[in-house]
Design brief:
The protein has a single domain, classed as 3-Layer(aba) Sandwich (Rossmann fold), CATH 3.40.50.10320. Strand 4, helix 4 and strand 5 form a beta-alpha-beta unit. The protein has a 7-stranded mixed beta sheet with strand order 3-2-1-4-5-7-6, with helices on both faces. 37% of the residues lie in helices and 18% in strands. By secondary structure, it is α/β, with parallel strands linked by helices. The two termini are 32 Å apart. Bound molecules: zinc ion. Zinc ion (ZN) binds next to loops. Zinc ion binds next to loops.
Length: 239
Amino acid sequence: MISNSPGLAAFADTQRLIVIAAHPDDLETMCGGTICQLAQRGVAIFSVNCTLGDIGTSDASQNRTDLAALRLQETEAAARLLGLQQIFNLGRHDGELLPDLALRAEIARLYRLTQADTLFTFDPFWSGQIHPDHRAAGQAALDAYMPSKMPLYHPEQLNEAGAGLGCLARVFLFGTDRDPDVLVDVTAVYPQKIAASLAHVSQFPEGETNLEWMKELDRVPGAKLGVEFAEQYKQVNVW
Ligand SMILES: [Zn+2]
């Protein structure tokens, strides 16, 4: 089946993109191919990880503080490979993320500081999303959208240099299989997606063989487009 998805054209007006994820490596594995192509087009990309990723190991002797520091280094290496403009980490503990008012305000602040026009985040409503941090990141990112545009919401944020009212105009959800309506062919940049994902050595110590799950995920929308690999998004209608 060949989809009539708009593909990259869905982001034709995007100049500043913010990605709200839960863990280091979410951006790379979920939407790294799309991000790579948008960065090549000159889009300024801001990456936000809500948690430190500090339980992301099967080694019970690991120290959480050391693991968080290592994962930040890996995130920086991946960001250089993909050409991201800036990365942020909100410092929450992995496995304990809640879409509370504090997280909403911190995300709204970043919408205001980055002046992003487009948001990518997890689909918090996809029933197949089993990771609580993924649901919480997506929920908080959507919850911050509206208040970020309103001047009486945390007005102190508007005094920061460069900040203005939130100006997001487009919202796309990844990590979803809920009637996705934007499918992006990422076959041409798949080597870059794999390289950025493998920058997270702590997560994929055996290299590409650890990414078979990602390839399987990306082959499903790829088959709909008639290409090898694609990434898929659910667009939220906003105003
Ligand atoms: Zn994750």
